[in-house]
Amino acid sequence: MSAFTDASVSMCLPVLPYYPDQAIRKHFKTKALYLIISNTKQMIKKILVIIGLALSVTQLKAQSIDNLTSSFNTGHYYKIDGTRVESEIKLTCLAKFGTNPHNSIYIKGSDGKTDRLTTKEVSSFVIGADSFLIAKNIKHGEAELTEDFVHFDSVDGDITTVTHYTTTGNSTLNGLVLYVKKGVTYATLKAAQKAK
To answer: Rg of the chain's alpha carbons, rounded to an integer?
Structure first.
């Protein structure tokens, strides 16, 4: 004899409204399935829009950096001793190999002469609305840099988000987002958040 009675089994089953006409019951099942599929499609559309916006922002940022590397723009830089110098500045980003800094700036003096400056002479610089600073111990592809210029993106509490730019073999800019906390550079936000 079974320990379950018909009453106990029926208590475990979901209660569906009783309709004498099976077509109505089938309609409700179809409607529920339609709602599930419809909601999934809407969610996928929203996700695709978000991805599209993120890619657009990334492209705009890359175009902005391309403009900074293709010609001289008005800006200023700070020497290692803290002195601010107004100048026309052009950013250069080199390929990602080795341990030496890859990024440098060219400045144009009032006499039209250009000079190349690196992290040894400059602590930070601004070109237009874009700010750059020095990050240390950067791992970007095959390169392990002791220090290099990075683009300042944002600050959230004690974590600064930056992007390190290099060029690929066909001179295309390649950006790597990094996180700096208390002078230490991290490859992931999670690692920076865990750091003390």
So the answer is: 29
